[in-house]
Amino acid sequence: MSSDFYTLDQQGGWQHTSDVAVTQAQPRQRLPLFSGQVSAAAYVASMHALDNQFGTVTQCAAGSVQQNGTTATLPVTLTRQHAGAQTSTLQLTQAGTAWAIAVAPDAGTLPLATVYQFCQHLQRADYGSAYQGLSAGFQQAAGSARAFQDDARASAQMTGAVTACHLQQVQVSNNGRSATIKFGIDFARFTNMPAQSNAIADPVSGVWHVDQMNFTAAGMSLPFPLPLTQVQNVINVLKTICNLAPPNQICTIVEAIP
């Protein structure tokens, strides 16, 4: 992924910084507060992932504020250890008598936070909330919320319950409306399994949703959740693979699954 930064256009989509013209003095709608879009825990986890991927911020320089009523923009140049200096435009909104950041300054923050919050729902076995975090396409593929819940519980027969997720890196598309997130996922039976999720932003609201999720076991890429009708078939395939592979922790556990 490029370490370039993006800014939000008036249609709610992200644009590459080099494509964004100097802010024009024109009426703007009041922006939602960024702090209301993600939880504090999800924000912290996302920033740790960005720090690991691009290096920690070593320097921050701000330009001149362009204010228009209750909104404002502020060009900021952040220097990261690995990515170097990158300029983005902070969008601010007035919250009472104070000002607050209204839009995530880094394009990777919201997709990372979306996957983190999805994992949090899975950890709590809150499958209803997890289902609401899916894109329309993912929901259609999964079926009803009840079907998604049944599949998630069936998946747990093989993997055990989800116990943690460890965000690693994000790659945002050029238009800023989709992203691929790599992370490690811990199950009760397996730990730090390689996983990948696609996330997309709603073209109207700009809200991010999980669009796909896969994890890897015994070299086999598996969707999450596994459809209820496929769980036993997958277990049988994994056992066959393990019979041909050198003994390892995953195969030991798979062989113990009835």
N/C terminus separation: 42 Å
What fraction, in percent, of the residue positions are helical? Answer: 25-40%
Integer count of domains: 2
Number of helices: 7
Would you tell me the overall average pLDDT?
A: 81
Largest sheet: 5 strands, antiparallel
The overall strand count is 12
The CATH class of the largest domain is Alpha Beta
* Shape estimate: elongated
CATH A-level architecture of the largest domain? Roll
Secondary-structure class = alpha+beta
The helix-strand sequence is: EEHEEEEEHHHHEEEEEHH
Question: Which strand-content bin applies to the residues?
Answer: 25-35%
Task: Describe it.
- The chain has 258 residues and is an alpha+beta fold.
- It has seven helices and twelve strands.
- The chain has two domains: 6-105, Nuclear Transport Factor 2, Chain: A; 110-229, NTF2-like, domain 1 (Nuclear Transport Factor 2, Chain: A, Roll), CATH 3.10.450.
- Strands 3, 4, 5, 6 and 7 form a five-stranded antiparallel beta sheet that branches. A five-stranded antiparallel beta sheet has the order 8-9-10-11-12. Strands 1-2 form a two-stranded antiparallel ribbon.
- β6 and β7 (98-101) form a beta hairpin.
- α1 packs across α2 (109-123).
- The radius of gyration is 21 Å and the shape is elongated.
- The model is unreliable at 1-30 (pLDDT under 50).
